[in-house]
Amino acid sequence: MITFTFYLVAIILIVAAIGVITVKNPVHAALFLILAFFSSAAIWLLLQAEFLAITLVLVYVGAVMVLFLFVLMMLDVNVAPLREGFVRHFPLSIFVGGLIFVEMILVLGSWHQAVPPETLTTVPNIELLGEVLYTYYVYPFEIAAVILLVAMIAAMALTMRPHTRAKYQNPAQQVTVRREDCVRLVKMPSETKD
After folding, report:
1. pLDDT tens for residues 23-78?
2. Inter-residue contact 29 to 23 (CB < 8 Å)
3. Per the domain annotation, does 6 fall within a domain?
4. Of all helices (H) and strands (E), which one includes residue 66?
5. What is the pLDDT of residues 85-94, one digit of tens each?
6. Closest by alpha carbon to 27, among 88, 85, 71?
7. Has residue 104 got a pLDDT over 70?
8. DSSP 112
9. How far is Cα 128 from Cα 52, in angstroms, rounded to an integer?
10. Rounded distance, CA 115 to CA 136, Å?
11. Cβ pair 44, 56 in contact under 8 A
């Protein structure tokens, strides 16, 4: 039953990950990412990493993805101009993606696959996680930190564009408005019925 559950959740995770990068609507991509996070949390629960599963659901699904959806809906992203230069920049993106892939293979291949310390019943799960994370997996942890930093900078760069459809109010001008400027009384003769 555990094997069946693992394969089912893994297939859902792969389909959700493919959906994140293939759908055209950014809101749908964020919803697929939420599904991928839940599937990853289920796999971590199967691996008895309860702390990681709960952290993933609380932090990423509960906070980060809600913020992403909020920003996507507030920005009202027009997707058509974003796709205009796709063909022109495709060879460069393939080169950069391949370079990142080769770097990840080199980093993960050069670093030895150490066996984490044996799990003792007296050692808490969080303490064991901290020991393994900051000793055996320190390079992937640092790489993840750099990727998150780049994502933060990219999110700030995307939101700093000037908005052409935004309407602003001037409170000082609103306070100084007079009744005569807004309302005009017109005298009209009353109609008579013949």
Report:
1. 877 778 888 888 888 888 888 888 877 788 888 888 888 888 778 777 777 776 66
2. yes
3. yes
4. helix 65-75
5. 667 767 877 8
6. 71
7. no
8. -
9. 12
10. 8
11. yes
Mean per-residue pLDDT of the chain: 77
Q: Rounded to whole angstroms, how far apart are CA atoms 100 and 25?
A: 26
The answer on 37 and 74 residing in a single domain is yes
Within a domain: 8: yes
Sign (positive or negative) of CA dihedral 127, 129, 133, 136? positive
The structure's pTM equals 0.48
Residue 28 falls inside a structural domain: yes
Nearest 10 degrees: CA dihedral of 107, 39, 123, 137?
10
Is the pLDDT reported for residue 100 higher than 70?
no
3-class DSSP state of 6: helix
Domain hosting residue 147, numbered range: 101-112+121-160
- Helix (H) or strand (E) segment spanning residue 108: helix 86-110
pLDDT at 114 over 70: no
The answer to whether 46 and 69 are in contact (CB under 8 A) is no
Euclidean distance between CA atoms 28 and 26, whole angstroms: 5
Tokens encoding 23: 């759908």
